[in-house]
Every structure is written in structure tokens, then in C-alpha cells.
Amino acid sequence: MSSLRTMIAGRGLAFTTLVTAAMLLPGLGVTVSESGTAVLPLLAVLTTSAIATEMTFRLIRKQALTAHNVTTAFILAILLPTEIALWRAATMTVLGVTLSEMIFGGRGFGFLNAAVVIAALVVVSFPGTALASLTDMHAAATAPAVLALAVAGVLPWRALGAFALGCIAMTGLSDTITTTTAWGVLVFGGVFLLADPFASAQTRSGQVLQGVLAAVLFAFLGAGGADATTTLVRAVLLTALFVPLLDQAILTIGRRIDARA
Amino acid sequence: MAMREIRSALITNNPVTQQILGICSALAVSTSVATALTMSMALTAVLCTSNVIISSIRHHIPPSIRLIVQITIIASLVIVTDQILQAYAFELSRQLSIFVGLIVTNCLVLGRAEAFASRNPVGPSAIDGLANALGYSLILLLVGTVREVLGQGTWFAMTVFPLASNGGWFEPIGLMTLAPSAYFVIGFLIWAIRSKRRDLVERTGYGLRREELSDD
Amino acid sequence: MLQEEFRWFAAGVDAIGLLAEEAVFVCQQAAQPLCNNNGRKLRIARFSGAYCSALSGTHVHALRPQTGTNPVLTVDWQDTLAIGRLVNTGTVSWRRQVGIGGDNAGTRAVATVPVGSDLKALATGLRKKSNFGSKRSMTVLSGDPVSGVPAAYLHRFDDVVTLTSKRDVDVSGRGNLRINAITPYGALIDALPFGQPALPLMRALTAHDLETVEALGADKMLEADVAQLSRVCTSGADYGVLLRHALDELAEARS
């Protein structure tokens, strides 16, 4: 156990990227088997543009080259519709990686998940674009990722658990979520979009609130009958914008309680 | 002296990218170059005139009510400008809707009146007004150009990229017609200017020390 | 083995009790009180458990949380001994008992050495004497395995010396000010005792956000309290050094 810890501690960010990328492969496999090899050129374009953006910035900043955004590209290859024009995917990837990560100094310094931002940019920029619908097979392919990320110690499990419980509660409260729910989206999006360690709350209670908020937003935003993938991307992006605020609120409340005690 | 003023207001001390003034109108009217140009001209007229008027009566304005007087002067000028636009360029004034009227609340105008015109002679105040208006116009036109070309494939309503809907190849980026894109464009502009001109970057309260930034 | 020196402990506590305006807490692990509870101000508190239960930051937090107007002073047991010795004999003790341990130390040992003594010589001497340590290359840390720093001489406030293999030290990157991104491991969120927020503190420390550092209670912490963070975090930052910088700057701003 301690040698495993040492290994994880030694690798840091690169190790997290590697585990996440490896755990996205089953999901990619499902997408390929369901929509054919048409997804491969998209995957190539996404990977190239995401990594090229990252490396350009690191070159300009005279930092060692990294390729953390390989995970961004993998997630997007699953989320974006296979028939999307390649230049659209590339433009939005460059813009999204820049806005969500490079502006802040790279992965681990910002508070947004690049894949979420890019998917949202695609939906907003090109009206009428519907994101891919994920199936139960995607949910099944995500299950090993939960285990692997939890063992690696980078899964914000409080956020994921609260999201799951929140979704169940919202199903009980309103029937909107059941009509729009797709297992694939909730599980895949919950693990790879919402429970991104770099975009999650930094406090325990903040993570719980984050999960609950995402579930509530998903239920409300999906009420109009929008497709589940787009709804989840919107819900997660909106939640991400509130996460620093949630953390700040938790810390302030904690300080007040301490001061009173 | 006048040229130096103007040059400084274009980049070094640009009201939008450096003083971060007049952002709200820059967002609202920069969807196309035509509206951006009209807005720029309206603002230039108001800013120059208001600076001259306020400067010429600066010794007669009691300090305790100077803001009220300044706003009254600016508001009058704005109403006149708006009326002229409605009389001679009705279509454009409809596109600009309330934003010409809102020049009254444009912090740039009151900012220059309060910071410069109320304590400087008429000549320099006129130049200051013109310089700042030009700096504002430059940014507005740049943002307008980016947004119109990428969002509609046109520039001053002339086709730049033939649209796919008209048999061309270009599919407009819808994002560019929405207000947030102006934030992005202005943000990228500020970023580009400050990466080129390090001396324009404000001292931050805190941040990663340079020697601590990793190269790994 | 320390009994002979230890008789000064109670005297030291008494002396501190005379100087203190308010309560004096003696924090110990053993069930047997380390000194007689003869003063009104004196209270015995017992701590046991994981690493952080031995940190004075933990003791202060649990017994009497420090505030801006109510500072808390901590005196470690060696200094208490020295004070007791000084007030009873009039001589200042320059010696210090250090415990020596670590994965490269076959057995634990205790040595009485001068402050600032040469650690390499100390370790080699011990090795020669009693098969101490293995043949592997060895790093000597001044301090315990968690908060210790590779050093040639015994640091002023350390009373533990750790012999360890080089690899482990490189991993934790102690003394390092160049940082990578913080990978928010779950272990980091729970790294500080009493549910104190670790990640926000680490980010505030690395970003030199002194306002937040102060608000998060860093003025009640010492290097040893955040040593655990440097160990778990992969950014390679030495939060002890960063904390010291922040505390110095805060103190400067206040005066």
C-alpha cells in the first residue's frame, strides 16, 4: 500500500492524467462500436488541437511540454456528435482549452473542466448542434473508472455521491428527470465531468453541495425536454461557476462557528 | 503634445483595455461594425463637447454639486446627439436602441469630466476628450470587426466569408453574436496587449512568485 | 536513561508557572503525570494517537485556541528541562537529547549532543559503534520523518534525527519552493486535524494570499503542523517554508 502511495505521489499530475485517459478508453470503445469508425478522425482532430494548444502555451511560457488535455480530447470524442464539422470541433477546442485552463496557468491552476467548457461552447456557438446521446453501455464502461480513480485517490467521491443521491431525490420530487434521464449520461458525466478533481470543491461540505447543486440544476434545466447530454453539460458548467463561491461560503461559515465557540 | 496624448490613449492608457471604462456599451453595440462606428462617433461627439464645456466653466461649478452639474451637461449633450441620430440616421438609431441614451451613464464620459476636464484648461481637455474617445472607438471597432466577421461572415454588411446558407462555405459562429463573446474578445485583447507590454500590467496584490512557477 | 536529566522538568514547569499569567498546560502521552500538580494554574492534558497528536499546534487547538488578543506560547520539553536546570543550578544547558530513528536506523537510540552538532559525524559514529543502519546510502534528516529536513547540523528546534534512504526524501521534495499544480488528492482534503480546510490553505500559501492565509488560521500553526501537507502533496512545495514566509510577512504587516 505504501509503495503504491509513493508511486502516486511521485507521479502527481501526469499520473492522474494517465489513469484518467486509460479509464476513458472503454468509453471510447463503446462509442466506436456504436457509431462506427467515423469517430476516429474526430478523435484525431480533437487530440491534436487540444494538445497543440496546451503545448503552444507551455512553449511560450518556457515550461516543459505536457499533454494533460489528452483526457479533454477523449471525453469530447465521446460527447460531441460524430458528424460535427471537424473545423468546428478544432476551433472550439482551441478556444475552450485556452479559456478554461491556459488562462489560469494550465491544468491544476484553474477551476473549470476543459471538456465541459468546450462542449458548452459547441452548443452555444452552433445552434442546433445536439451532443451525442450516451447509452447504458457507456455507463457500464465508466464503472471501472470509478474504482481506478478512487484507488488512485483522485476521485472527489463526496461530490459524486451527493450527485447520485441528488439525482435519486430529484426523481422522487419531479418526474422531469425520469423522462430525460439516460443512465449513460449521468454516470459518464458524473464521473468525468462533474467529479473532475481539478474542478471540484476544495472542502468536504463544498463537494457535497456541489453534487447536490448539479443534480438540482440537471433536473430543472432538463424540464423543457432538452436532451440529457446537453442538459448535463449545462448543469455541470453552471455548478462549476458556483463551486468557488460554495467553498468560500463553507469557509466563512466554519470561521463564524469557530469564532463563536 | 496632442499627438502624444492621442497615441497614449490608443494603447498605453486606453480607456477600455487599460482603464476598463465603458465596458457595458462596448458589449452591447459591438455585434456589427456599423453600430460600433455610429456609437463611437456619438461618444466622440459627446465626450469632446462635454469635456470642453465642463472645462470652460470649471471655476464656476461649486464643488459640492459638481457631479450634478456635470451629469446635467452630459445628459443634455446625449439627448441632442440622440435626436440628431433619429432625425438623420433613423435605422441605425433603432439598432442602437437605448445605448446612445445610455452614454449618460457611460463611466468613460463622467470619468474624464471628473478626472481631467474639471481641473484643466479648455485646450488640453478637448484633446483629452478626443484621445479617449478615439481609444474607445478603436477597441469598439476591433471588437465589432471580430464579432461581425466571425458571427455573420460580413464586414460593414459586405460579404467576407460566403455563408453556407447562401451556397458558400462559412457557417457563422453563433457565439459571436451573443454578449459574452465581447467579453472574450476584449479579454483576449487585454491579454495580448499586456503580454506585449509588460509595463502595463498592474501590480497584483498576490500571485505566484515568478521563481516559484514551475517549469515541469 | 533520561531520568537523571528529567528531574529538572518539574522545576522548569514551576518556573514557567511563575512567569505565566494564565493557565499552564502540560501535554503528555504517558498516563503517569510528568510533574506534580501543585500550582493552581497547572493542568495536565493527555494526548495520544496519530502523528498530529504530538504537535503543539494540535494541543493549542484542543486546549485553548489562540486568538489575536490571546496568544499562546509553547515550550517544548527540552527547553523546559533547560529552564528547570537554569533556575536550580544557575548553569545554562547547551546539551540536548536527540532520539535517532528512521528506516535506516536498525534500532532507536538516544544521544546527548550539543545544539548544532554535526549530524553526519553523529550518524557515522553510531553506525561504527553498534552496527547502526544498513550499508545503503543514507540521508540524515534533522527532525522527524514527516517534518524533517536533510541537514548537516542539528537544527535549533529539533530533538529527533532521522536516518532514511535517499529515495524517500526526493519524493517529498522538501525545502522546495518551485511548485507544480496541486493535484487535489482525497488524502489532502483530510490532511489537517479538526476538519481544518487543507486545500484552501495550501492554495492561499502558494499564491501568497496572506489575507486568506490569516483567515484560515495559519497564525495558529507552525511548520510541523503543515509538514504532513508537503508530504502528501505532489506539487513539491514545502508548505513549512511557505508558512514561515507568510507568518513573517503577516507579523511585519502587523507591527
From TrEMBL, chain A:
Alphabetically ordered keywords of this record: Flavoprotein, FMN, Membrane, Phosphoprotein, Translocase, Transmembrane, Transmembrane helix, Transport, Ubiquinone
Gene Ontology BP annotations: transmembrane transport
GO CC list: plasma membrane
Segments traversing the membrane: 39-60, 72-90, 110-134, 146-171, 177-195, 207-226, 232-253
Short name of one Pfam family: NQR2_RnfD_RnfE
Protein name per its UniProtKB record: NQR2/RnfD/RnfE family subunit of NADH-ubiquinone oxidoreductase
Organism whose genome encodes this protein: Hoeflea halophila
Lineage: Bacteria, Pseudomonadati, Pseudomonadota, Alphaproteobacteria, Hyphomicrobiales
From TrEMBL, chain B:
UniProtKB keywords: Cell inner membrane, Cell membrane, Ion transport, Membrane, NAD, Sodium, Sodium transport, Translocase, Transmembrane, Transmembrane helix, Transport, Ubiquinone
Membrane topology category: Multi-pass membrane protein
GO molecular function: oxidoreductase activity, acting on NAD(P)H, quinone or similar compound as acceptor
Pfam families found in the cross-reference section: Rnf-Nqr (PF02508)
Transmembrane annotation, as ranges: 20-47, 96-117, 129-149, 169-193
GO biological process, one term: sodium ion transport
InterPro entries, per database record: NqrD (IPR011292), NqrDE/RnfAE (IPR003667)
Cellular localization per UniProt: Endomembrane system
UniProt keyword Ion transport, yes or no: yes
GO cellular component terms, A-Z: endomembrane system; plasma membrane
Domain of life, per lineage: Bacteria
PANTHER family tied to this protein: ELECTRON TRANSPORT COMPLEX PROTEIN RNFE (PTHR30586), NA(+)-TRANSLOCATING NADH-QUINONE REDUCTASE SUBUNIT D (PTHR30586:SF1)
Family matches, as NCBIfam families: nqrD (TIGR01939), PRK09292.1 (NF006777), PRK12405.1 (NF009070)
Protein name, per record: Na+-transporting NADH:ubiquinone oxidoreductase subunit D
Organism name: Hoeflea halophila
Taxonomic lineage: Bacteria, Pseudomonadati, Pseudomonadota, Alphaproteobacteria, Hyphomicrobiales
